[in-house]
Structures are given as structure tokens and as C-alpha cells.
Design goal:
The protein is an alpha+beta fold. The protein is built from two helices and two strands.
């Protein structure tokens, strides 16, 4: 005999939140890994490049000093 458990709305909300948190953690790891390996990042087909503060400052200084 198969036992079926009916979830109440609070349990459903908890499961939903757990899924959202898991998805966010996966994307965070993807971003961190790309930055650690100095690689580009694609999210939904869009290309991103993660820079640390020092790299960003250097880019701004290069643009200003041109």
C-alpha cells in the first residue's frame, strides 16, 4: 500500500523557499567559480565578466587617463 502525505500550505511554502534558496546558491557558486578562474560567465545567454574592486578601479583609471 502506498502512503500519500498531503502537504499543508506552510509545508508547501517551506519547500518552495528551499527550492529558491537552492537555485540562488547554484548561481552564486557559478559566479564565484567563474571569478576564481578569471573566466566569463553566461546567464540566459548573456555574457558577463566578474571583476573585483581592484580590476574595476584599474578599468576606470584607464578610461579616465586616455
Amino acid at each position: 500500500m502506498i502512503e500519500v502525505e498531503i502537504l499543508n500550505s506552510e509545508q508547501k511554502a517551506d519547500i518552495f523557499c528551499l527550492g529558491v534558496i537552492t537555485g540562488i546558491n547554484l548561481y552564486q557558486q557559478k559566479v564565484i567559480t567563474a571569478q576564481q578562474h578569471n573566466k566569463t560567465l553566461r546567464i540566459n545567454g548573456e555574457l558577463y565578466y566578474v571583476q573585483d574592486a581592484r580590476e574595476r578601479l584599474q578599468d576606470m583609471m584607464d578610461k579616465i587617463c586616455r
